[in-house]
Amino acid sequence: MNLNPSASKPHYPILDGLRGVAALTVVVFHIFEAHSTSHLDLFINHGYLAVDFFFLLSGFVIGYAYDDRWERMTIGSFFKRRIERLQPMVIMGMIIGAIFYPLQASNLFPIIATIPYWKVLLVMLVGCFMIPLPPSMDIRGWRETYTLNGPAWSLFFEYVANILYALILRRLSNVVLAVLTAIAGIALVHYAVTSATGDVIGGWSLDAEQLRVGFTRLAYPFLAGLLLFRVSKLTRIKNAFAWCSLLVLVFLAIPRVGGATHLWANGLYDSLTIILIFPLIIYMGASGELVSNSSKKICKFLGDISYPIYITHYPLIYLYTAWVVDHKLSFSQSYPQAILVFVAAVAIAYACLKWYDEPVRKWLKKRSQR
Predict the structure, then answer these.
(1) How far apart are CA 283 and CA 88, in angstroms?
(2) Residues 273, 247: Cα–Cα separation, whole Å
């Protein structure tokens, strides 16, 4: 989910920008999710696929950043680098979740009024270490692994992917990696077309079924991203950022496929988008080049803010969703507040980036070089 190339390597600025486009789309998706009645009428209907896009992007950039470095890098130093990159904002996301938690007490979350704050702080502390909590420790009622900040579930799987890469995947030949990728792709299609909801939504709860969803969503994208980096021969594509951004937005915003009577059709759409379209987008993005200074600044801003906004926006969504549901509001009645939530999410993320994440990572880097 996060680019971390070595200092001697140029990175892919368009991929940075695309990560930001997908992250902002997730925020909009979650805002509109408050007004939906089911998976069938979600606006930005396939916004949940941004997570799978992140996993695929992560596989690509992890391979790019680290595949050729293992002769001079230990497993411990790899884990240290990844923790330095990911963990500061995980902690901030949990802290923000704990701050907003009491404000979310509502008819939608009635359990909040019964939870002592010491327990909230305990859940926050456990979450800061990315220790997954079982449903029995749920203090919201949504059975989330990280009940103060739901999207952190995908960071749990990001860590799993990083561990598997360091211990196993980096050692595999391209042939073995391709076989595993094909098997994971078949498993993804099978799950998506046979699931009870006709999609790949899920992975955020520590029970057998949700763990299956999470690992199914992780396996193909991460493996495919790593394989794509290893075997692809990049070309030159003009206006790649514009075209790739358009493709990301279109495939995330496509209305539900198949309706209530053909759930398998939407599952097929989900899996084929992950298997075919997302690798194409990442290939195009890696093949593109930014020419103008304005496009470089846009991609840098989007890339910088992508992770902070993804990991900090959801406490605002809890609050907005509770308010909308309790007052039975349509989007036309609440769009000023929806816009405020979006702007606030961006502002909080940017503030966290500049006043916390970047300084902390800079301090950790200096300390590790002593």
Answers:
(1) 30
(2) 11
Under 8 Å between Cβ of 214 and 203:
yes
For the entire predicted model, the pTM comes to: 0.96
Neighbours of 217 (CB within 10 A): 26
Distances (CA, A) of 285 to 86, 89, 347, 367: 23, 26, 27, 34
**Strand pairing partners for 288?**
237
Q: How far apart are the C-alpha atoms of 233 and 323, rounded to whole Å?
A: 50
Reported as a single tens digit per residue, the pLDDT across 249-274 is: 999 999 999 999 999 999 999 999 99
How many angstroms separate the Cα of 14 from the Cα of each of 129, 155, 358? 31, 22, 21
CB contact set of 201 (below 8 Å; sequence gap of 6+): 39, 48, 213
135-179: pLDDT as tens digits: 889 999 999 999 999 999 999 999 999 999 999 999 999 999 999
Distance CA 226, CA 159 (A): 15
Token pair for 271: 């899996």
Q: Which of 350, 346, 358, 334 shows the shortest CA–CA distance to 34? A: 334
The structural domains of the chain, with segments of one domain joined by +, span 13-368
5, 11 contact by CB (below 8 A): yes
Is the CB of residue 47 less than 8 Å from the CB of residue 25?
yes
Residue with the two structure tokens 């299956």: 212
Residue 276, CA atoms < 13 Å, CB-side half-sphere: 8
| Number of CB atoms found within 10 A of residue 214's CB | 22
Task: Say how far apart CA 137 and CA 127 lie, in whole Å.
Answer: 12
User: How far from 145 is each of 26, 132, 135, 163, 203, CA to CA, in Å?
Assistant: 19, 5, 7, 19, 9
Please answer whether residues 22 and 53 qualify as being in contact, where contact means their C-beta atoms are separated by less than 8 angstroms: yes
Helices (H), 7-49: 13-33
SS3 174: helix
